[in-house]
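Reading a protein record of the kind used here takes little practice once its layout is understood. The reader may check this reading against the record printed directly beneath this paragraph.
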Amino acid sequence: MRLIITAAVVIILWAVRYFIPIEKIVMLSIVVVISIACFEMFVHLPMFFNSISYSATETEVTKSSGVFIKVHQSVRYSSIQYTTRISSPLSQYTGFNFIIFFVYGGQLRLLFLKRSDADEIIRLSGSISVKED
């Protein structure tokens, strides 16, 4: 995430320098963009990743997250319409395993899971059978 933010900052600073001819505005823009990027990389992202927690039981999965505003989402396995799992080729090393539960009226995204945790959650969600009338 820090690499992506750094790349975005470099592109924004290049665009500011290229399109704005007034040097004082360019310097002010550079200071503002770098300050926002440093806050995001070194304060907000670590707090955000530290606040995320997931819990899975036999009947439901719960996600708790948020830095400034705490959000708790809970979904019963019986209300899941379908599930999408996204994994990168080296997901056992990078932690890029995502599960998206599509439920009636919304979705629940479980982000940056270990591969074993993602397998366990998929196993739990698939073990519940839903009877349709």
Notes: The CA atoms of residues 78 and 130 lie 6 Å apart. Confidence is low (pLDDT under 50) at residues 127-133. The helical segments are 2-19, 23-51, 91-94, 115-126.
